[in-house]
Design a protein that fits this description.
This protein is α+β, with helices and mostly antiparallel strands. Helices cover about 45% and strands about 20% of the residues. The protein has 8 helices and 6 strands; from the N terminus they run αββααβββαααβαα. The longest helix is centred in the C-terminal third of the chain and has 24 residues.
């Protein structure tokens, strides 16, 4: 057997995903055994980008002044609302803060904050364990922040990215209703 395929697998080690399958194996008499063993089969997971390009793309993901924050910010400002952005003095550093009335608003992207998480986990292709843990931790952190803010007397609003992009007026109306109620 040639050693080239093995060398190719060694080079692509970070893109190899172990998949466990059950198989039968031949018995010494040439007849297949009824015993089942577990084999490890490696499938090479292709990434459409080089490692350097993927690293660059991931480094450009922002935590503030994201597209959805800017869209909501401009609309709130146009409607006469004045607020603080990413206020570090408030638990969880909300995207928008109305301190006088204790209103915290978060703009959450679907991927990073786990919208429809149970069905979306299957879409993750590479480094599955890492990303599932990371996003699950984000979901748990969001719940803890909501609880801490609520316990401290704050009203918390969370908008999904698609709500802001597709139904911006509804988001602003929700904020208007809550601001009017809290004043």
């Amino acid at each position: 057997m040639s050693s080239e395929p093995i060398k190719a697998l060694e080079v692509m080690r970070e893109k190899i995903l172990p998949v466990f399958v059950r198989a039968t194996y031949p018995h010494e008499g040439g007849i297949f055994s009824s015993q089942i063993i577990t084999l490890v089969v490696y499938i090479i997971m292709a990434d459409v980008h080089s490692k350097a390009t993927r690293s660059y793309n991931m480094s450009r993901i922002k935590s503030k002044n994201t597209k959805i924050e800017v869209i909501l910010s401009k609309e709130l400002w146009a409607n006469g609302y004045r607020y603080r952005r990413n206020d570090k003095s408030v638990i969880g550093k909300p995207d928008f803060v109305f301190k006088k009335i204790k209103l915290a608003i978060f703009c959450d992207s679907e991927f990073w904050h786990g919208k429809n998480w149970d069905s979306q986990q299957a879409r993750i292709g590479t480094n599955k364990i890492y990303w599932i843990n990371k996003i699950q931790n984000n979901i748990n952190r969001d719940k803890r922040i909501n609880e801490r803010l609520t316990n401290a007397g704050w009203v918390v609003i969370r908008f999904w990215e698609t709500e802001i992009e597709k139904r911006l007026n509804d988001c602003v109306l929700t904020i208007t209703d809550i601001v009017n109620f809290l004043r």
